[in-house]
Amino acid sequence: MKSNRKRRDGPDATKSARAKVSLAPGVRGAGLVIGALLVASSLVLLINRPINPAVKLTKTGSGTNALALNSPMISNAADSRLSDSEQAAQFSNRGTALFQQGKIEAAAHDFAEAMRLTPEDETAHFNLGSALARLGKFEEAKAQYEEAIRIYPDYADAHNNLGNLLAGHGGLTEAIEHLKTALKLSPDSASAHNNLGTVLAKQGNLDEAVLHFSEAKRLLPDYVEAHCNLGNAYLAQGKTNEAVAAFQAALRVKPDFGPALLGLAKARP
After folding, report:
1. What sign does the dihedral 199-226-208-185 (CA atoms) show?
2. How far is residue 37's CA from residue 122's CA, in Å, rounded to a whole number?
3. Is residue 16 part of a domain?
4. Between β-strands 37-40 and 43-46, what pairing exists: parallel, antiparallel or unpaired?
5. Among 78, 226, 265, 267, which is least packed by CB within 10 angstroms?
6. d(CA 108, CA 131)
7. How does pLDDT run across 6-55, given as a tens digit for each residue?
8. Could you tell me where the DSSP H helices lie in 168-223?
9. Residue 227 sits in a domain of what CATH number?
């Protein structure tokens, strides 16, 4: 049964501070890259920016929703003096710290503990799904995102991550549904615009893809992947001048960004 309860916290995290997570092959803001480079015909695309698990955490005993990385960390055995929600918040916080350190398996363990303690908390499922996706466990990650959405159907970040995950495994039609839902719920999500543009481009719908890549870079001007994807879309349309401008914009953000360097070389042989 779907829950209609309102979310406790929540704006899309795409515009949040870029220092939250840094994962290869590249993360901006709160985005976790799980697709790396995808190729559709001659079009090289970057599908990325699911929202990372550090964005939304269960409320702690003090009632805050922010990261509490300076709070006491718990051992593998939960402190029975705390409520389930307080224990879950500590597991989530430690899992987030581990995730930021690249210790994804350990993070997944802590997120699973948080989910066990608060099984109807959508963020617990979201966090676990993000870690499982990073570990390449597609079916398990998909199930966690779907459970987060079951609990809170209007969870824009979960729709974005699930759409991205599906797209990376060939489920383009279902991916588009989730990404469009994410944008309906959070129209200013640069991540969802870029991800939707990528899927549309893979389907050959370049005109609509260009619109979404353009909106992504408008919302987040230093979004290097969106600039590069826009350049590749223009290149596939035969719009060389526009492609060059887009690749140059990407390189102003990140001068050593390989896909943009490659795209620029193709646009200006």
Report:
1. positive
2. 30
3. no
4. antiparallel
5. 265
6. 5
7. 444 433 333 322 222 222 222 222 232 222 222 222 244 454 444 555 33
8. 172-185, 190-202, 206-219
9. 1.25.40.10
| Owning domain of residue 131 | 37-267
d(CA 19, CA 35): 21
Residue 14 covered by a domain: no
Length of the chain: 269
Contact 151, 122 (CB under 8 A): yes
CA 80 to mean position of chain CA atoms: 34
pLDDT higher than 60, residue 203: yes
The answer to whether residue 127 is domain-embedded is yes
Residues 117-151 pLDDT 10s: 999 999 999 999 999 999 999 999 999 999 999 99
Residue 46: strand pairing partners: 37
10-30 b/e with 16+ CB inside 10 Å = b?
bebbbbbeeebbebeebbbbb
Q: Is 22 within the bounds of a domain?
A: no
CA atoms in the 13 A half-sphere facing the CB of 21: 33
Only one residue has tokens 């526009």, namely: 242
Alpha-carbon distances, residue 228 vs 86, 183, 210 (angstroms)? 43, 21, 11
Q: How many domains does the chain have?
A: 1
CB of 54 closer than 8 Å to CB of 99: yes
Type of residue at 37: L
